[in-house]
Amino acid sequence: MPWAQALIAKKTDSLSHQDPNTGRVLSYAQAINEALVLAMELDPKVFVLGQGVDDPKGMFGATLGLAEKFGGERVFDTPLSEDGMTGICAGAAMMGLRPVYFHNRPDFLLLAFNQLVNHASKVHFMDNGKTNVPMVVWAAIGRGWGSGAQHSQAVHGLLLGVPGLKIVLPSSPYDAKGLMLSAIADNNPVLIFEHRWCMRRKSAVPEGFYTVPLGKGVYRRRGTDLTIVGVSHTLELALEAVDELARDGISADAIDLRTIKPLDEEIIFESLKKTGKILILDSTWAMGGLCAEIGCRVAEKGFRDLKAPVRRIGLPDIPTPAGFTLEQYYYPDKKRIASAIGEIAAA
Amino acid sequence: MIRYAYSGKGFEPFEPAIGKYDREFLVSLLWSMMRIRMVQEEMERRYREDEMKTPIHLVIGQEATSVGCCAALERKDQVFSGHRTNGNYLAKGGDLKAMMSELYCRANGCVASRGGSMHLLDKEAGYAGSSGIVAGSLPIATGAALAARMLKQDWATMVFFGDAATEEGTLWESLNYAALRELPVIYVCENNFFSVCSPLEARQPKVEIYEKAASFGLHSVQVDGTNVLEVYETARSAVERARSGKGPTFIESLAYRWRGHGGAGDDSDTGYRDPAEVEHWKQYCPIEGFYNFLAKRGQIDEPGRNALVKQIQNEVLKAFEHAISSPVPEESDLFKHVYSD
Ligand SMILES: Cc1ncc(C[n+]2csc(CCOP(=O)(O)OP(=O)(O)O)c2C)c(N)n1
Q1: For B142, which residue in chain A has the nearest alpha carbon?
Q2: Among A161, B150, B251, B326, which has the highest number of CB atoms less than 10 A from its own CB?
Q3: What is the pLDDT of residues A57-112, one digit of tens each?
Q4: If you ran DSSP here, which 8-state letter would residue B122 be given?
Q5: How far is Cα A123 from Cα A177, in angstroms, rounded to an integer?
Q6: Phi first, then psi: what are they for A32, rounded to 5°?
Q7: In-domain check, residue B287
Q8: Does the beta carbon of A135 lie under 8 angstroms from any beta carbon of chain B?
């Protein structure tokens, strides 16, 4: 079934212009939960699986109550088998189902790269367009409390160069719900990486069905001195820094990309043309991922607009340390981001 | 030295029951094996021209597994495969012309020159795809079986792979899940004793593959992969199990690969196996053995076989001509189908 396109269009119309800052306030987990309920009510082919999705914790609350509501045939626990289960999702998706596969941490997805990179992402191309793989893989980036090198990694940078995948990093409950619905409706494998620290947020979330489009960034702040572009928790820190710097007379365009693949290049260049300066932020390693990609595109296509060197802030080329003392040197904080912004503005 | 000897019982055990098969069916099994063999022999002959620019993995000597298994399936049933696709694609009813065009990298290949020989596809025939990553299609086939269950469909899924796939973790993840959920899936392990040039004994301890599968809670059997009737009967009961909700079956089918791992010809002279071992297995040719059995029972005779050969030759030549005279893709085709709308 083409994913109820008409139905979606009808339902989104009235909501797409709604102000995300007013109205009913939901927690992050509630927003995702609501998206899943709507999708499962709309389409019997949507199902939810993952380690512990039907347990009392319900995947940080995102899947709470779903098994009771929709039954164990559509919401079920899995063996660990991350690669096998990813392939099982791909096979089910190839036959017309729409799996939504939950993981506690992106670190565990590294075991599933064979199915993600060699199979799910390539089947549509290799089959000459004859097969679709509409599946969603969700994971929550961890940080802090000793999570360390194997429980706090964000792996979206490793996957950015893989054709056929879509990669989403929401940062608010509003986006988490709308992007989840878009991801489930999409006919391609879509990876959603939430950040546990963004997941503490609450925001206004419209009731009912609405979608946030994949591949469209959004301005979180408007200003003139520089362009800040990024995703997820690090961008959230940057917004706090920018708000504080207003007292020094500094203002910035701050762009939340929300989706990094496809990448909304247009919004970046639109802003860069105006400001001539850019700071790129990511919640994972700066090397080789989103920061590097945007930096390169700016050098290729925005060079003449640049009034200062490109700057990026991500994680250093070091595994995450477990202890809290080392951690504070590892993760960029608001202060470090603020001083970079100040330097760029003054340049 | 013959390291891996034939251990089957031949066709004798099927003598008493021959009457229960209809002649047309028996001849169709023979025809299907001959067709696979002849397609591959023609591929081999032409491979040296270097127009078929794709790595090929011939299934000569192993035809009975493809044919016996697929004879137990209906069109609606779904087949997945590993890299050794030729036999199971044709046995499941995959379009020969589209396959040849794919091997010749033509725009009208079964996947428009995006797959090559390791990735054939014919959705209309229920040939759902294959993976060049050893064991890669195991979980995908298992997921297809899960879909059949969830969609309340009665088709079965069958997946073909080699002995080396049982050295991959993802295979055991798949078996574990299929057994847990009692999924309608049939795993067909074509044990030809080699992974490229590495013998089984260099890769696995001496535990029978089908016994390992059984320990995962699957119904598991070992069959003589040169005996198309034995394969067929085993596959038929596996399909019955799948359709009646009794869960997955693992079939280990023993048959020797007469040619090298990839490309044309036998490469035994490089020293990884004894050419005498190849000769040993040629005495148990799945096609000759079955023909002799049928002829002895009066189901076919020499003129009958010659007529089959003629018909197949004709079809094969036409398929090659079709492929060679077809257009190649254009640059703009490259950009299609990275994403689905
Ligand atoms: C994961 C992976 N590892 C290695 C290879 C290289 N390779 C391709 S075919 C093959 C042999 C596999 O042997 P087997 O599974 O027994 O199948 P056969 O070729 O004998 O039919 C190997 C090692 C691969 N394609 N995928």
Answers
A1: A88
A2: B251
A3: 999 999 999 999 999 999 999 999 999 999 999 999 999 999 999 999 999 999 99
A4: B
A5: 28
A6: -65, -45
A7: yes
A8: no
| Domains detected in chain A | 3-204 (3.40.50.970), 218-346 (3.40.50.920)
pTM of the model: 0.95
Distance CA A271, CA A253 (A): 7
Nearest by CB to A83, which of B128, B148, B170? B170
Q: What is the pLDDT of residue A8?
A: 54
Instruction: State the distance from the centre of ligand 1 to the C-alpha of A157, rounded, in angstroms.
Output: 30
Asked whether residue B13 is assigned to any structural domain, the reply reads no
* A151 noted as active-site residue: yes
Residues in A closer than 8 angstroms to B338, CB to CB, are 124-125, 163-164
Burial class of residue B54, CB neighbours in 10 A (0-12, 13-18, 19+): middle
For residue B182, tell me if it sits in a domain: yes
Q: Give buried/exposed letters for A152-187 (b at 16+ CB in 10 A, else e).
A: bbbbbbbbbebebbbbbbbbbbbbbbbbbbbbbbbb
| Tokens at A84, concatenated | 């096998």
pLDDT in tens, A118-142: 999 999 999 999 999 999 999 999 9
The domain in which residue B226 lies consists of: 21-326
**In-domain check, residue B340:** no
Q: What's the DSSP call for residue B14?
A: G
